[in-house]
Amino acid sequence: MTEQEQLEFSETKELVEIMDQLPSTISDLEQALKGVLEAPPDQSVVKELGVGAEYLPYLVIVQNGSPLTEEPQSIPVTHLALRRSRNVADDLGPSMDVYICTWRTKAMYSDPSKKDVRSIYDRNDPMFKEWCANAEDKITGFWWGFEFLMYHGDIGEFFTFFCNNPTLRRAANECLIPNTQRVVTISTTPLKDGSYKWQGIKAAHCSTPFAKPPSLSEIKKQTERFTRKDKEIEDLEDVGEDESRER
Questions:
Q1: 109 is a domain residue
Q2: Which residues in the chain come in under a pLDDT of 50?
Q3: Which of 15, 19, 34, 73 is at a distance of 20 to 30 A from 192, taking alpha carbons?
Q4: Domains contained in the chain, number
Q5: Residues 6+ apart with CB under 8 A from 109
């Protein structure tokens, strides 16, 4: 066994021992993960910005009019869906238990006609600020917000969630960022403005043990991979129309 394999075995064994301890499995898990992960970004970033390789699947909220409600997907409105590519998504239901690993700021530009999809994560980059301004002016193809790396405790998978509209940026500020490096239940919640109805999200503390607990080494690896990028050019085939980019 190599030194790296011995390290990963030791970390996995440590996690199994922690998960076997009672009575507070989730609490022990959170404490163990804080011991191996870097601290998440300072929440003052949210106040500063306002409530403005390998690809992981990404989470979307299925809204009215979403193509995901049609065959062959047929995912109900109000459900959460894990998009794996433009035409493939898994129905996660109206709620799920997740561990929020970390988060980052993100500005995104997309022009499908030119097969051009780019993301910037450094909020001090002049282009990041320009794209944020374009998104606020509702210029087609520009979005900005807070992107999260999460782990789904029932399916045992990592994914991302881009909170890129006013509703989701507020939710990120109020209930996701404060729960970074914690286990929470995320669920959709109905919203209404006059005759217009759509779905937002809410999060609450979760005490249910994961069916598929994560490995400490894998969470650390995915977190480092997620936070080390300044810019990224994405594969257009892996990017679907994001159901969350509305209000």
A1: yes
A2: 7-9, 11-24, 48, 50-53, 235-247
A3: 73
A4: 1
A5: 116, 117, 118, 119, 131, 141, 142
Asked if the structure places residue 145 within a domain, the reply is: yes
Give the number of other Cβ atoms within 10 Å of residue 189's Cβ: 13
Query: Which one-letter amino acid corresponds to residue 186?
Result: I
Under a CB-based contact definition with an 8 Å cutoff, are residues 159 and 152 in contact? yes
- The whole-angstrom separation of Cα 236 and Cα 238 is 5
E runs forming strands in the chain = 58-61, 80-85, 88-93, 95-111, 116-120, 142-152, 157-163, 183-193, 196-205, 231-233
State the Cα–Cα distance between residues 156 and 114, nearest whole angstrom. Answer: 35
Pairing of strands 58-61, 231-233: unpaired
Return the axis-axis angle of helices 3-19 and 216-227, rounded to nearest 10°.
110
Tokens 């994001």 correspond to: 242
User: How is residue 76 annotated by DSSP?
Assistant: P
pTM of the model: 0.76
The verdict on residue 234 lying in a domain is yes
Show the DSSP H helices in the chain as ranges.
3-19, 25-36, 44-49, 126-136, 166-171, 216-227
Q: How far is CA 191 from CA 118, 136, 144, 202, 205, in A?
A: 30, 21, 21, 11, 22
Q: How far apart are CA 144 and CA 48, in angstroms?
A: 14
Q: What is the pLDDT of residues 204-227, one digit of tens each?
A: 999 888 999 888 889 999 999 998
Q: Which residues touch 153 (CB under 8 Å, ≥6 apart)?
A: 97, 98, 99, 183, 210, 211, 212, 213, 214
Residue given tokens 């940026």 in the structure block: 169
Residue type, 172: A
